[in-house]
From TrEMBL:
<comment type="similarity">
    <text>Belongs to the syntaxin family.</text>
</comment>
<dbReference type="GO" id="GO:0005484">
    <property type="term" value="F:SNAP receptor activity"/>
</dbReference>
<dbReference type="GO" id="GO:0005886">
    <property type="term" value="C:plasma membrane"/>
</dbReference>
<keyword id="KW-0812">Transmembrane</keyword>
<dbReference type="GO" id="GO:0000149">
    <property type="term" value="F:SNARE binding"/>
</dbReference>
<dbReference type="InterPro" id="IPR006011">
    <property type="entry name" value="Syntaxin_N"/>
</dbReference>
<dbReference type="InterPro" id="IPR010989">
    <property type="entry name" value="SNARE"/>
</dbReference>
<feature type="transmembrane region" description="Helical">
    <location>
        <begin position="242"/>
        <end position="260"/>
    </location>
</feature>
<dbReference type="InterPro" id="IPR000727">
    <property type="entry name" value="T_SNARE_dom"/>
</dbReference>
<dbReference type="GO" id="GO:0006887">
    <property type="term" value="P:exocytosis"/>
</dbReference>
<keyword id="KW-0175">Coiled coil</keyword>
<keyword id="KW-1133">Transmembrane helix</keyword>
<dbReference type="GO" id="GO:0006886">
    <property type="term" value="P:intracellular protein transport"/>
</dbReference>
<feature type="coiled-coil region">
    <location>
        <begin position="60"/>
        <end position="90"/>
    </location>
</feature>
<dbReference type="GO" id="GO:0048278">
    <property type="term" value="P:vesicle docking"/>
</dbReference>
<feature type="coiled-coil region">
    <location>
        <begin position="167"/>
        <end position="197"/>
    </location>
</feature>
<dbReference type="GO" id="GO:0012505">
    <property type="term" value="C:endomembrane system"/>
</dbReference>
Length: 275
């Protein structure tokens, strides 16, 4: 049990690390979105965001696998120790707290990614409109799709070096948006997997509850049977005592009657001798 508690503390600390990643992500993304930066500075921040996304994905996946293994161990313990649910319930309570905490951390990071991605989409649209003021709404929506690359290429088709540079940055932004969208989708899938784990655990707990309810019903029935038998035994013993007491009274009356009769006969005999 001590090893289990140490494991839960470590996992909890790792989830706190995920929260720290989210705070760093928000800080870096806000710096990039709200500051006037050089191209090199923007790329540096974009690289930091990619690193954070990878670190978050790797650590959250690791924790998810550990929690899955912990859930399987909990179920194994419950199946082996049918007479006592204390150990299972203690472990499962810790597991549920950690799983919900992980879901919250992942969802919070995902929301930060979505907010940042929406800002980047708006900036990409603004770049495109500058290059092509007559851009349609459909073209703007397609900028982060496969067609978007062709739209960007056509919009920045001028031969000047500045146009080529603008196209290069717009293309990079479009690629970053798509990669971030994939990261968001990955986190959504992870949340779905964790929710499924929790549901499976709840079903198992419900099954345990039914089993415990059945056991309690059997215990109650047994107790009722024992109480009925005890009442019957007490009643039988009471009747026996009444019978024995009645016989005792009858015997006592007979003895008294015989004693009186004996004394009466003895007195009669003594009177005859005196005469």
């Amino acid at each position: 049990m001590q090893n289990f508690l140490s494991q839960t503390r470590r996992i909890s600390e790792e989830i706190n690390t995920l929260t720290e990643y989210k705070e760093k992500f928000i800080y870096i993304s806000n710096t990039k979105s709200k500051s006037v930066l050089k191209e090199s500075e923007e790329r540096n921040l974009e690289s930091q965001i990619k690193v954070l996304n990878n670190m978050f994905s790797q650590l959250s996946s690791k924790i998810k696998l550990e929690l899955k293994k912990m859930s399987e161990e909990n179920e194994k313990i419950q199946n082996e120790e049918k007479e006592s649910n204390f150990l299972y319930e203690t472990r499962n309570n810790h597991w549920q707290v950690l799983t919900k905490k992980l879901v919250q951390a992942i969802n919070s990071y995902r929301e930060s990614q979505v907010n940042y991605n929406n800002i980047e989409k708006d900036r990409l649209k603004s770049q495109y409109i500058i290059a092509k003021p007559t851009a349609t709404e459909e073209e703007l929506e397609e900028l982060t799709s496969e067609k978007g690359q062709e739209h960007l290429k056509n919009a920045f088709s001028l031969g000047s070096s500045s146009a080529k540079q603008m196209y290069s940055r717009a293309k990079e932004r479009s690629n970053n948006i798509q990669k971030l969208a994939e990261s968001v989708e990955e986190l959504c899938q992870m949340i779905s997997d964790l929710d499924e784990m929790v549901k499976s655990s709840d079903v198992f707990i419900d099954r345990i509850g039914v089993s415990m309810s059945s056991t309690k019903h059997s215990v109650k029935k047994t107790n009722k049977d024992l109480e009925s038998a005890l009442r019957y035994q007490r009643s039988a013993m009471r009747i026996k005592r009444y019978i024995f007491a009645g016989i005792g009274v009858v015997v006592l009356i007979i003895l008294i009657w015989l004693g009186i009769k004996f004394l009466g006969n003895q007195n009669s005999g003594n009177g005859g001798n005196n005469n």
